[in-house]
Sequence to fold (152 residues):
Amino acid sequence: MKNYKIYFAILTLILASLACQTVLGGGSSDSQEELPPFEYSGGDSATEEPSTESDFSFGGESDFPLPSDAFNVTTIAGTTNFQTKLSLDDVMKFYRDEFSKQGLTEREITTVISDGVFSIVFDGDPSGQAVVIQGVDLGDGSINVTISLQDV
Fold:
């Protein structure tokens, strides 16, 4: 009688599993939902001129001064990001020199220099916004630098 109960429990579990697969539509690997066809509505790319205006630049274009060894330069929506092999101190000196030549002044109260990280804000940009420069030591001999105009 005891064996009968075990077999009955196993049979019940198998039937319940099969019922769940049937109700939920599982178990069939050849039934895939078809996606609607993709329609490109951007015009004929063979006759259309590519747009020259973009908020994205990759490869060295920036409105901000960059050290001569800057690499992986990316500009998106006015924010420039790059890496350099200069030290944190050299990057800060570079931007202090460059922006003071342009007549910008460092907002010293917001300058933060910590272990492997810095943040400097310069006022006097013609846009009326502050130039914010942030740097992080990546630990591989390079520094990641981000420069942007912000309302600070």
